Amino acid sequence: ILLGLALWFTDKNFFETSLVIITAHIPVMIIEGIVTGFCVTFLLKVYPEIIPVKKK
Fold it and tell me: Is there a contact between 20 and 13 (Cβ–Cβ < 8 Å)?
């Protein structure tokens, strides 16, 4: 994302390239979010002391 934004603000000729880079990374970000969510859920079940969460 930073590369795409850097290209976007550098020059108008890089607009299409930056758009392709940003668009290509959206599925990767979604998959990373899902995997991170599963990891946090697993850690909360197995070893809840590792992630401090206030419970009501």
Answer: no
Domain boundaries, the chain: 2-50
The pTM is what?
A: 0.67
Query: How far apart are alpha carbons 40 and 47 in whole angstroms?
Result: 10
**Could you give the C-alpha distances from 30 to 2, 5, 9, in angstroms and in order?**
17, 19, 25
Contact assessment for residue 7 and residue 22, using Cβ atoms and an 8 Å cutoff:
no
- Give the mean pLDDT of 23-42: 95
Tokens encoding 40: 């946090």
**Residues in the chain, total:** 56
What three-state secondary structure class fits 9? helix
